[in-house]
């Protein structure tokens, strides 16, 4: 039989192409090669990963094969899988993502868990007023809306593109009526006044020189605006902590995701502001400090300090 350098496309079945792509990505040290191959192939076929498992023997059509190869090339250039396919799973949601928003990270689900636990532990009226600052794709606020009905949710971001995406995600998640979005720089757009029970945020917290050392795919593709927390990584904590307490009702709390070495620095900022008490921190499932909570200082303890 003559040697054929290329297979005809009909010989590429789902299983064979997955095995090929897995090996190819692995050799080039792309992380999670198998998952990447499956997500990209499912996207090229307009289907999902479960379908692939059930159709291992399905031959690929030429255009499908060609499309899949362009996805593999893009991944090899460093483009994150989530941007290639345009969506990313977070909590129970499938969120649309573009390079205008940070790709939601699994650690951030810890912020959602902590916020839901805080809400569940409240003894006052059940419906809370909640604000998500720097919402990006809407991940945190939409997970909360999907999980805990009955609350009044507001979310802002300084990027109008991000707010457009977050709004679309709210519609897709079926919670559009439950979250109000607006463009704004932290709390600056709001009049001061105690209107929220809970303020949550996953602000940019990577120090600038650390940002430069992140994986090239993050630096080249993800929005710097959503990651870079200035020289020491703490600029956004200062901005939020300084004003958030003026927007919290008595008994309210501010809850934020932090970088794993920032707990004490953020605690000092909170103490220095004079607006909070009962600072606490929980770890993520990797064992790293991840979510800080601070209660608005109650009026009795403010007088005690005087
Ligand atoms: N966890 C992100 C990262 O280092 C940072 C997210 C953020 O700055 N809020 O990849």
| First-residue to last-residue Cα separation | 93 Å
Radius of gyration: 23 Å
Give the SSE order as H and E letters: HHHHHEEHEHEHEEHHHEHEEH
What is the CATH C-level name of the largest domain? Alpha Beta
Q: Can you identify the CATH superfamily of the largest domain?
A: Vaccinia Virus protein VP39
Q: Which key phrases capture this entry?
A:
306 residues, alpha/beta, Helicase, Ruva Protein, domain 3, Rossmann fold, 2 domains, 7-stranded mixed sheet, two-stranded antiparallel ribbon, disordered N terminus, binds glutamine
What's this model, at a glance?
The protein is elongated, with a radius of gyration of 23 Å. A hairpin with a 5-residue loop joins strand 8 (276-283) and strand 9.
Polypeptide structure, described:
- With 306 residues, the chain is of the alpha/beta class.
- It has two domains: 14-77, Helicase, Ruva Protein, domain 3 (Orthogonal Bundle), CATH 1.10.8.10; 92-305, Rossmann fold (3-Layer(aba) Sandwich), CATH 3.40.50.150.
- The protein has helices spanning 14-27, 33-44, 49-54, 62-76, 81-85, 109-120, 139-147, 160-172, 208-213, 216-221, 235-247, 263-273, 299-305; strands at residues 87-90, 93-96, 129-133, 152-157, 179-183, 196-201, 248-257, 276-283, 289-296.
- Strands 5-4-3-6-7-9-8 form a seven-stranded mixed β-sheet, with helices on both faces.
- A hairpin with a 2-residue loop joins strand 1 and strand 2 (93-96).
- Helix 1 packs across helix 2, helix 2 crosses helix 4 and helix 6 packs across helix 7 (139-147).
- The protein is elongated, with a radius of gyration of 23 Å.
- Glutamine (GLN) binds at residues 105, 202-206, 227, 257.
């Amino acid at each position: 039989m003559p040697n054929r350098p290329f297979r005809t496309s009909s010989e590429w079945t789902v299983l064979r192409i997955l095995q090929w792509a897995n090996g190819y990505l692995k050799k080039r040290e792309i992380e999670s090669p198998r998952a990447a191959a499956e997500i990209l192939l499912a996207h090229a076929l307009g289907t999902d990963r479960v379908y692939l498992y059930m159709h291992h023997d399905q031959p690929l059509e030429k255009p499908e094969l060609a499309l899949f190869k362009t996805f593999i090339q893009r991944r090899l250039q460093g483009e994150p899988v989530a941007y290639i396919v345009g969506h990313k799973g977070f909590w129970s949601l499938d969120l649309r993502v573009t390079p205008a928003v940070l790709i939601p990270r699994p650690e951030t689900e810890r912020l959602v868990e902590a916020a839901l636990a805080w809400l569940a532990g409240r003894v006052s009226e059940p419906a809370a007023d909640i604000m998500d600052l720097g919402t990006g794709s809407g991940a945190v606020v939409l997970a909360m809306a999907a999980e805990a009905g009955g609350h009044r949710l507001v979310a802002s971001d300084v990027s109008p593109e991000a707010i457009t995406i977050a709004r679309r995600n709210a519609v897709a998640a079926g919670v559009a009526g439950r979250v109000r979005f607006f463009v704004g720089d932290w709390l600056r757009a709001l009049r001061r006044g105690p209107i929220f029970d809970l303020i949550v945020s996953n602000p940019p917290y990577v120090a600038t020189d650390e940002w430069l050392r992140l994986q090239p795919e993050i630096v080249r593709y993800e929005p710097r605006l959503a990651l870079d927390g200035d020289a020491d990584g703490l600029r956004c904590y200062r901005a939020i902590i300084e004003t958030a307490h003026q927007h919290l009702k008595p008994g309210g709390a501010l809850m934020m995701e932090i970088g794993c070495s920032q707990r004490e620095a953020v605690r000092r900022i909170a103490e220095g502001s004079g607006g909070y008490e009962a600072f606490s921190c929980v770890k993520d499932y990797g064992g790293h400090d991840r979510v800080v909570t601070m209660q608005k200082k109650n009026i009795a303890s403010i007088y005690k300090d005087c």
